[in-house]
Write a structure and sequence with these properties.
mainly beta; 3-stranded antiparallel β-sheet; Galactose oxidase, central domain protein; Kelch-typ_b-propeller
């Protein structure tokens, strides 16, 4: 299992937050102050900071790797990244918007 943790700069201590539902290596990350959004490998993991809970949403239609993730005015934006087909790699040209009100708390 993969773990999300918080590091206290003053004390040098680590605090376990939660277990990730899927491991990540180069995720896109964004936050709105209440949630931390983690996107990689067609999965959007959503960590609720106050309740210490994690949910995962499979976005099967989004075949993009190594994309950036940004939050602005209740919308997540998936930007850049690449598409792979066998040995071929092509840049992903679209910007994908996800209305966060569609995400169940």
């Amino acid at each position: 299992m993969w773990t999300a943790a918080s590091y206290d700069l003053r004390t040098g201590e680590w605090w376990r937050l939660c277990d990730l539902k899927d491991g990540v290596s180069y995720p896109g990350l964004a936050s709105d102050g209440s949630y931390i959004y983690i996107f990689e490998n067609r999965n959007l993991q959503v960590y609720h900071i106050e309740t210490d809970t994690m949910r995962i949403y499979e976005l099967a239609a989004l075949d993009v790797e190594n994309a950036g993730l940004f939050y602005w005015r209740n919308t997540l934006y998936i930007v850049g990244g690449c598409n792979r087909q066998g040995i071929y790699v092509a840049p992903h040209r679209d910007v994908i918007a996800i209305d966060v009100s569609q995400i169940d708390p």
